[in-house]
Amino acid sequence: MSRGEAAATVVQGRLVLGDRVVPGRLTIEGGRIAAVDLEAGTGDPSEGADDPIVAPGFADLHVHGWGGHDAMGGPASLDGMARSLLRRGVTSFLPTAVSEPFDTLSTFADDVRGWIPTAPADGAEPLGFNLEGPFLAESRKGAHDASALRIPAMSTSELAPLRDGLRLITIAPELPGALDLIDSLANDGIVVALGHSAATVEQARAGYASGARSTTHLFNAMSGLDHRAPGLSLVALLDDAVAVELIADGHHVSAALWPLVTRLKPVSRLILVSDGVAIAGTTDRRGRIGSLAIEVAGGRAVVAGTETLAGSVIALDTAVRNLVGAGIPLADAVAAASTNPLDLIRVIDRGRIAPGQRADLVELDAELHVRRVMRGGAWLVGPPG
Questions:
Q1: Do residues 278 and 65 make contact, with C-beta atoms less than 8 angstroms apart?
Q2: 3: pLDDT confidence band, cut at 50, 70 and 90?
Q3: 341, 61 in Cβ contact below 8 A?
Q4: In the chain, at which end, N or C, are there fewer CB atoms within 10 A of the end residue's CB?
């Protein structure tokens, strides 16, 4: 080893490789995976059961806050959010805005763009930002302020300053001008998700045909699986090219439905998101999302004084545990929290355990709780806070 050259790091455990989990060893050099060496093994399924599980770092594409920090709260809040998320195994994320007036959204976008170059190395890495709105159907607004909603046909020019750094946006396809906007955004490489929508089957199909590639929190705030009047949920489930977000907290979607989703969707099209809010990961029971007051009871975050769900209070490590506990294979659950979301936004330098990939890793114990997190080849030691 030459003078000044960093020594290689070796990581040993049960490696989550695509569709399987295999005992093996990683060599990390220069912040990347230099080699993957698999052990021959004996075929005994209990082999290596005491070894940690090593998975790609998680990527949360839809998260409004965490650990007492709001994505729309400015650079200091983004610092805290990134650090809090990393300790839950999230190594990459998109700070996510709710529907607000365009001047507020422009401030959010400017804050994120200005913050990205100085984001903390001991936090999850920002990959841009996500706009959940304001082009949402008022009848399916969920925890969004109705006064902030906009019609695409009347607001295209106001969106223009927000495009730089925009990686993902939710649009209701039935709104006037929505299909043209979806086409324009998709041509610019921005991922459009359909959601907060009362779309008919035909309107949903038109939205995906115009270039939408994902679906915001499947089943929630959208037309569903009614046997006489199906809508967006049905189209999203049956279109193999379309990704679907799942909030696997058991409140947004009953765990009894998760096997239906995994049977209908290709493995690569399932994306776990937290939809986490600022008070997630704290003992606080009251907070805000955008301009709305929220409260938490029984693990459910709702708009204060209502039963309307307002994001979640779980992180992706909990979502992975929940899926596995429901019988979903570990490799599939991990892919839904890492490889699949990164592939959706075309980030291909991480999210897999393979030579050449960035060494963004999460080490889990036998119960799938976070033990350590590695970002760019450096370990963050200790359990989640």
A1: yes
A2: very low
A3: yes
A4: N
With beta carbons less than 8 A apart as the criterion, state whether 318 and 280 touch: no
Give the residue among 77, 56, 52, 53 at the shortest CA–CA distance from 67: 77
Rounded distance, CA 383 to CA 370, Å? 6
Q: Give me the residue label for tokens 């806050």.
A: 65
Give yes or no for residue 44 having a pLDDT over 70.
no
- How far apart (Å, rounded) are the C-alpha atoms in residues 81 and 264? 34
State how far the Cα of 25 lies from the Cα of 285, in Å rounded to an integer. Answer: 43
Q: Which of 70, 111, 249, 275 is catalytic?
A: 275
Q: What does the alpha-carbon distance between residue 322 and residue 314 come to, in Å, rounded to a whole number?
A: 10
User: Distance between CA atoms of 125 and 117, rounded to whole angstroms?
Assistant: 10
Q: pLDDT tens digits for 244-267?
A: 999 999 999 999 999 999 999 999
Could you give the C-alpha distances from 35 to 208, 355, 357, in angstroms and in order? 39, 5, 10
pLDDT band at 50 (very low <50, low <70, confident <90, very high): confident
Taking the CA of residue 25 as centre, how many other CA atoms within 13 Å lie in the half-sphere pointing to its CB? 8
Number of other residues whose CB lies within 10 A of the CB of residue 250: 17
Reported for 137-141, long-range contacts at CB under 8 A and 24+ positions apart, including other chains, are 137/172, 137/174, 137/175, 137/196, 137/197, 137/198, 137/199, 139/198, 140/172, 140/196, 140/197, 140/198, 140/221, 140/222, 140/223, 141/99, 141/196, 141/221
Based on the residue annotation, tell me whether 275 is a catalytic residue of this protein.
Answer: yes
What phi and psi, each to the nearest 5 degrees, are found at residue 383? -75, 165
String of DSSP letters for 324-363: HHTT--HHHHHHHHTHHHHHHTT--SSSS-STTSB--EEE
Could you report the per-residue pLDDT of 322-334, keeping only the tens digit for each? 999 999 999 999 9
- pTM of structure: 0.95
Polymer length in residues for the chain: 385
CA-based nearest residue to 278, from 70, 28, 29, 35: 70
Nearest to 212 by CA among 138, 139, 135, 101: 135
Q: Are 15 and 36 in contact (CB under 8 A)?
A: yes
